[in-house]
């Protein structure tokens, strides 16, 4: 077997998923997040939406984008976070001709994303068995709250519900010994985002397998499954020990000190991962003796005696401001940092240096500010080429490009209220 050809320069190399066609029938966050990632990697992602309404998140505001004259539009900020680089096609799948049109598109697609209730697409002939029959190469990714099987399969699933049911909230929030104790959800729809990431990985895995077998397959992805998998060390600690993890606020169950501490003007985070870091921290705090104290000298000892150590440290950390501590501790290679508000995040020099805030031209707002994709390829950089689309913005364009539908046929579909 000959070795793969090495391109002479990067200009010859395409985006990783260039040429891939993705039909995105999903709404809200988990599915659209996956669709956006696939689009960022070069796929042609067509977002299929309901005429006149579209994705639910289009109306999840305020805030809404403002137009070039400063007047509010109907485009919610929420929608902007998960629909970059896509084209919007409006089709009424409840109309027989609309369902038929989507089937024609699916016959041309490499990937289909959907997050309807289990069995919800069968009545339209858009379920996995129906589309597999017309396109055996199709990778069909179903995202639901609870999966295609099991007693909860018929239920609707939302991120907040899954954070509770899946155990995340049981280990998030102040401990029972503190004022304000109680389970707490994460401040973003983290289970949805993680499910979108798993979906993207699963799709790419299925595409790699298809390159060998020539056949697509069905991906059954559930928010609950993802949340349980993402319990990570908390789950493994329970499975190994039989002890149920408890809420500990910002403290870590097996590393000390690894939490927030008060300063003269706010709070900071210390994340001490080994005994050497702890020794340097103690010296910076003015208490080198703590590193020699048998109660604190090693991490297991610190975990056992956290109730003694943490109050002592809190008395020391309030003596300087957050900025002063961060400057001092960073100079001593002690992991630390501030607790930033989101405005401070985007003002941070490292965030700015990495280009994590970007903007794209928008037909109503002029430009729309967005968070950039964090993937950094050396040879095929992620290209953010188009803002989240207006509802139905690319309907005629997609039908012409994918199916060869001309203007007259497109107008007929509009007259019949199919698109």
Question: Runs with pLDDT <50, length 5+?
Answer: none
Domain count, please report it: 2
Structural class of the helices, strands and pairings?
alpha/beta
Based on CA inertia axes, which overall geometry fits? elongated
The string of secondary-structure elements, in order, is: EHEEEHEHEHEHHEHHEEHHHHEHHEEHH
Record field, number of beta strands: 13
Strand order of the largest sheet: 5-2-1-6-7-8
Please outline the major beta sheet.
6 strands, parallel
Task: Report helical residue fraction.
Answer: 25-40%
Mean pLDDT rating: 95
How much of the sequence is in beta strands?
15-25%
Name the CATH architecture of the largest domain: 3-Layer(aba) Sandwich
CATH superfamily of the largest domain: Crotonobetainyl-coa:carnitine coa-transferase, domain 1
Radius of gyration: 26 Å
CATH class of the largest domain: Alpha Beta
Please report the distance between the alpha carbons of the first and last residues. Answer: 50 Å
Q: Which topology of the largest domain does CATH recognise?
A: Rossmann fold
- Please tally the helical runs, counting DSSP H or I stretches of 4 or more residues: 16
InterPro entries: CoA-transferase_III_domain, CoA-Trfase_fam_III, CoA-Trfase_III_dom3_sf, CoA-Trfase_III_dom_1_sf
Pfam family, one: CoA_transf_3
Keywords: Transferase
Protein name: CaiB/BaiF CoA-transferase family protein
């Amino acid at each position: 077997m000959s070795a793969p050809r090495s391109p002479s320069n990067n200009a010859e190399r395409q985006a990783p998923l260039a040429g891939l066609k993705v039909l995105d029938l999903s709404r809200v966050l988990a599915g659209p997040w996956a669709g956006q990632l696939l689009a960022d990697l070069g796929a042609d992602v067509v977002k299929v939406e309901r005429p006149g309404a579209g994705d639910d998140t289009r109306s999840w505001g305020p805030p809404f984008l403002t137009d070039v004259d400063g007047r509010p539009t109907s485009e919610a900020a929420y929608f902007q976070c998960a629909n970059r680089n896509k084209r919007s096609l409006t089709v009424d799948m409840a109309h027989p001709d609309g369902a038929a049109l989507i089937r024609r598109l699916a016959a041309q697609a490499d990937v289909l994303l959907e997050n309807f209730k289990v069995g919800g697409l069968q009545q339209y002939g858009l379920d996995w068995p129906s589309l597999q029959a017309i396109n055996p190469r199709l990778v069909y990714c179903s995202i639901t709250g609870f999966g295609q099987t099991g007693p909860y399969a018929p239920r609707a699933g939302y991120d907040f519900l899954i954070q509770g049911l899946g155990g995340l909230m049981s280990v998030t929030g102040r401990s029972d010994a503190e004022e304000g104790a109680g389970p707490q959800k994460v401040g973003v729809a983290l289970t949805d985002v993680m499910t979108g990431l798993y979906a993207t990985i699963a799709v790419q895995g299925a595409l790699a397998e298809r390159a060998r077998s020539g056949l697509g397959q069905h991906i059954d992805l559930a928010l609950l499954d993802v949340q349980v998998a993402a319990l990570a060390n908390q789950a493994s600690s329970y499975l190994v020990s039989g002890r149920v993890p408890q809420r500990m606020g910002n403290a870590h169950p097996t590393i000390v000190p690894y939490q927030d501490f008060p300063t003269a003007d706010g709070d900071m985070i210390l994340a001490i991962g080994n005994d050497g870091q702890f020794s340097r921290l103690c010296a910076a705090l003015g208490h080198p003796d703590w590193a020699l104290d048998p109660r604190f000298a090693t991490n297991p000892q610190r975990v056992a005696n956290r109730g003694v150590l943490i109050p002592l440290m809190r008395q020391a950390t309030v003596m300087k401001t957050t900025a002063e501590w961060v400057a001092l501790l960073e100079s001593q290679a002690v992991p630390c940092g501030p607790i930033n508000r989101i405005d401070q995040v985007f003002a941070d020099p490292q965030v700015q240096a990495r280009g994590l805030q970007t903007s794209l031209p928008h037909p109503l707002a002029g430009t729309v500010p967005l968070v950039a994709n964090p993937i950094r390829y050396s040879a095929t950089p992620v290209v953010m080429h188009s803002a989240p689309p207006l509802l139905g913005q690319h309907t005629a364009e997609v039908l012409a490009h994918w199916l060869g539908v001309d203007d007259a046929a497109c107008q007929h579909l509009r007259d019949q209220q199919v698109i």
